[in-house]
Amino acid sequence: MTVKADDGAQLWAERSGEGDPVMLCHGGPGLWDTFEDLAPLLVERGAAVLRWDQRGCGRSERRGPYSVARSVADIDAVRRHFGLEAVTLLGHSWGARLALHYALAHPEHVTRLVYVSGTGIGPDSGWHPEFVGRLRAGIGERLARWEELASRERRTEAEEREMCVLQWSADFAGPDRGRALRLAERMATPWYGVNFACNAEINAETRTMSEHQLHAACGGLRMPVVIVDGAEDIRPRDAVDSLEQALPNVSRVTLAGAGHMPWVERPAEFAAAVAPR
Fold it and tell me: Among 81, 71, 29, which residue's Cα sits nearest to residue 201?
């Protein structure tokens, strides 16, 4: 299904199930919806699930501009398209940050915020160096190949996919790297290509945002917020502590044996934590 944003951009979206609406915001920036395993879990628990590819990503029209405000407006366009007054908003990774910004801008349209595998509201410098070390360790014996691909100024589509699969394999928990590679391959299938311009522009913008201002704004949120972490996420989970402390109505669930995509590795526990109540 195609949703038209307020500036005419075409956004891919899909609705499944009947019940309380849950809208999903995928990670990135510059990636696409990877919730094909999560959506049926939530439908089974009585949710109407809305999936969509963010502007310029996946099956949506590859066109800018790329900004947090533009992304927030696109969420609102999808919500209105499906005729929903309010939704549970679930965001993963970058999508968790985006969902938070939407909740701050439009609290009247969010009944509950589910913040999954995010990196908080503090500066990247607080968590990124540790993340890089864990990423390199997680890639393991294929690190040299990943470094070679990442250092190239130009890559073929196949090389870009290979680089991403190697990098994403570090996002899964446990010592079985063969299993991690298989799960990363599944994430990359079908392959839509990373929008690196979108990634660069939005990341540059979020790095300039004031932690103090975000902390103060979060203090005004009244809807319930659930923070969900995988205990083995390579992004340090203490990066989220300041966000948790800023929110007045928050609970936190940490899933053992799960990395950055906890619904893939602990599906039943994840669905129990985030399904409509």
Answer: 29
In angstroms, rounded to a whole number, what is the distance separating the alpha carbons of residues 101 and 67? 12
Partners of residue 252 on adjacent β-strands: 227
User: Which residue is listed with tokens 């502007």?
Assistant: 55
State the total domains in the chain.
2
Reported as a single tens digit per residue, the pLDDT across 12-64 is 999 999 999 999 999 999 999 999 999 999 999 999 999 999 999 999 999 99
Q: Tell me how far apart the alpha carbons of residues 35 and 54 are, in angstroms, rounded to a whole number.
A: 13
Distance of alpha carbon 9 from alpha carbon 65, whole angstroms: 10
Whether 220 and 118 map to the same domain: the answer is: yes
Q: How many CB atoms neighbour CB 133 within 10 A?
A: 11
- Together in a domain, 98 and 227: yes
Residues 173 and 73 in one domain: no
For residue 165, the enclosing domain spans: 128-187
Cα(149)–Cα(82) distance, rounded to whole angstroms?
Answer: 41
Give Rg (Cα) of the chain.
Answer: 18
